[in-house]
User: Fold Peptidase M23B from Alishewanella jeotgali KCTC 22429.
Amino acid sequence: MPNSLIQQFRDRVPVLHQRLMLGCALGLSVLLAWPQPKPTQSSLGFMPLMLGMGLQHGPQQLQQFPVAELTAWLQSQLHIAPAEDPFIKVYNIRAGDSLSRIFARYGLNYQTVQQVMAADESLLALDVLRPGNRLTLQLDENGQLQSMELYVHAGKKVLYKREAADEFSYQELLDEGVWQNTILVGEVFGSFYASAQRAGLNDADIYNINQLFKERINFARDLQAGAQFQVLRSENFVGEESTGLSRIEGIRILNRRQTLTAFMHDDGQYYDANGDSLERAFSRLPLASQVRVSSHFNPRRLHPITQRVSPHNGTDFPLPIGTPIIAPADGVVTRIENHPFAGKYIEIQHFGNYKTRYLHLSRFLVQRGQRVTRGQRIALSGNTGRSTGPHLHYELHVNNRPVNPMTAHIPLARPVPAESKAAFAARVKQLTAQMEQQTLLAKQQSAEQELAD
Assistant:
């Protein structure tokens, strides 16, 4: 009989209600079991005892009772999520997402999309949303967007804030974090690409190594089986969280009688162990001839159309539509996009920490993922997007930050400057010793593993 009553109770009462009732019973049990002064009278019965506790010891017990801890415990047991703020929406980016689709999900119209994209024109952070990115939207009581934070990685966030009914501004929130060094070593068996992957190098690392030595060795033909490689890779962390950024600070390839070396100096360029440059010269302009500048690099520029302060992260060259644009250095095309304000644009990742962008184009002459060489035609100039007339907007980024392309230090294929040559030689000696020590340790561990097997 009791079993049938219990079964009827389970069938008729919703599961959530059952859990709530269980939680109340557990809470009452804890209250009854909580230490308290002994009563002076004999047992008064269950209900009088409860009333007596409430009247005589209630205030004292409530002061001692761990309400917050018990509430958290009950929530975890009953799977009750904390109440969400109705004005804050958090969205984790998935493959294939676009800003317009995400905004539509929260009832935000396309006009709001356009306003945020206009603020992002000089940054282009929203143009390529990737899994791992996160958007946090702050809405008002009318469901209108007031601010939005884009989480790129632990060291980079971008805050978009409404400044007027039809305008947003942006602010980059950057944390440089710290760089932690790791030495990776290995031997070549099969292809260099597969061998490097086994050692822990990623595709970007392997590409950079190929670019550094491509004029000195053919990795597919000249690298012998058993050749050793030693790589000092530095990874960026903010606190305990990786930003996903890494760079090669030193590499040695021992290929029988040939030793290839590359070390990054303080100026961001790579030199061999003797201090000779490994970089190929970087052209100052992405054009075949000198052209006047119509708008200079200016982080505090007044926008010619909106008349509001808007960073100008590049240099503008007035050009007839169809003027050939050339790559200033070797690299890989990482973006080909059509932006409502930047127009048709291209981004190229060059060796080391250099990246270039070309905006307001009329035609693409390359594809995403394509490798390009210095002097190669990549596009034709145009007047697409938000533009006051036919021109090229050209940007140079160093370490993922825009710099003035007309005055910035660029690789010129020169040796280590004389004033820093001694410091460079000392660093090379130190890193070489560390690499050799790591290689010896790896060999010892491999020999011990073979004996154990």
